[in-house]
Amino acid sequence: FRLFTSHSFHNELDPSTVPEIMRTNMCNVVLMLKSLGINDLLNFDFMDSPPAETLIRSLEQLYALGALNDRGELTKLGRRMAEFPLDPMLSKSIIASEKYKCVKE
């Protein structure tokens, strides 16, 4: 039993899937690499290099969250955020919950 026709298989499907690194949010990866001391992300030897715009957008988002300073270095908050296996926005929320005394929630 097939879910598509032979014509669809040969003419409509992509020959191979797009690597996940090319189609996903890179903030968590960028934060992890920064925490490991890798600062030159644009020249880092990824197996499949993500678009430069994606890396730059991730750096901007991490800066907006306070994980990076204006020189692109990891802040104290960024180091704590990197300890969580979560999206940086969620890890910042967990860290902020301590400040607002609502960790249990």
From TrEMBL:
<dbReference type="GO" id="GO:0003723">
    <property type="term" value="F:RNA binding"/>
</dbReference>
<dbReference type="GO" id="GO:0005524">
    <property type="term" value="F:ATP binding"/>
</dbReference>
<keyword id="KW-0507">mRNA processing</keyword>
<keyword id="KW-0347">Helicase</keyword>
<dbReference type="GO" id="GO:0071013">
    <property type="term" value="C:catalytic step 2 spliceosome"/>
</dbReference>
<dbReference type="Pfam" id="PF04408">
    <property type="entry name" value="WHD_HA2"/>
</dbReference>
<dbReference type="GO" id="GO:0016787">
    <property type="term" value="F:hydrolase activity"/>
</dbReference>
<dbReference type="InterPro" id="IPR048333">
    <property type="entry name" value="HA2_WH"/>
</dbReference>
<dbReference type="InterPro" id="IPR027417">
    <property type="entry name" value="P-loop_NTPase"/>
</dbReference>
<feature type="domain" description="Helicase associated">
    <location>
        <begin position="58"/>
        <end position="86"/>
    </location>
</feature>
<keyword id="KW-0378">Hydrolase</keyword>
<keyword id="KW-0547">Nucleotide-binding</keyword>
<keyword id="KW-0067">ATP-binding</keyword>
<dbReference type="GO" id="GO:0008380">
    <property type="term" value="P:RNA splicing"/>
</dbReference>
<keyword id="KW-0508">mRNA splicing</keyword>
<dbReference type="GO" id="GO:0006397">
    <property type="term" value="P:mRNA processing"/>
</dbReference>
<protein>
    <recommendedName>
        <fullName>RNA helicase</fullName>
        <ecNumber>3.6.4.13</ecNumber>
    </recommendedName>
</protein>
<dbReference type="GO" id="GO:0003724">
    <property type="term" value="F:RNA helicase activity"/>
</dbReference>
